[in-house]
Amino acid sequence: MYQLTCPQCEAINEVSTAKAGGEIACSGCGQMIAVPKLGELRKLPPVEDNKAAPAASSSGGLSGGRSFAFAALGLVCLLCLLGAAFCGVNWSNIDVPLTTEKHLELLEESYQDASSAQMIREFEDITKYGVDIPSPLEYRTIELRKQAWGQKTMVYLAVAAVAFVLALVVGRKPKTVT
Q1: Could you tell me what percent of the chain has a pLDDT over 90?
Q2: Strand partners, 3
Q3: CA–CA separation, 27 vs 11, rounded Å?
Q4: Positive or negative CA dihedral for 97, 99, 100, 101?
Q5: pLDDT tens for each residue of 87-110
Q6: pTM score, two decimals?
Q7: CA separation for the pair 25, 6 (Å, rounded)
Q8: How far is the C-alpha of 74 from the C-alpha of 80, rounded, in Å?
Q9: Which residues pair with 115 in a beta bridge?
């Protein structure tokens, strides 16, 4: 911030480098004052430190576009966390009665207890009709549904994490050049 004197009323106005080459309204008389270009502006006396502290705290927030981006990313993060919670609850509420591994173990046990005639009939049925079934077994459908809810949960969490990191980047104070 620099001190710019009004040519009309000689009031001292504080002006930032962002206003270089533009115009500002005088705080004393209200007339428009031409702000010098950046090279000439930096030759003006700087605002004293005791006055700069309150001014910096009042303008310490985010600019309009950055503020909007920060709020939008925060909202995306929040919505994704809610979506992850919803999917996680659905995932945890699904009980899979049987897994593929357990099903194979049960088949193996039943084949060990089967007689030779039953095994021959089973072999003939497999040869004649094949091993394909028209639709997945019920336990497998439940297992796949639970897996899908788990994947949705992880996707929502990943998007929430990315939105959170981007919000931190956008919300970070820019470094001031002295």
Answers
A1: 31
A2: 14
A3: 7
A4: negative
A5: 999 999 999 888 788 888 888 888
A6: 0.51
A7: 9
A8: 10
A9: none
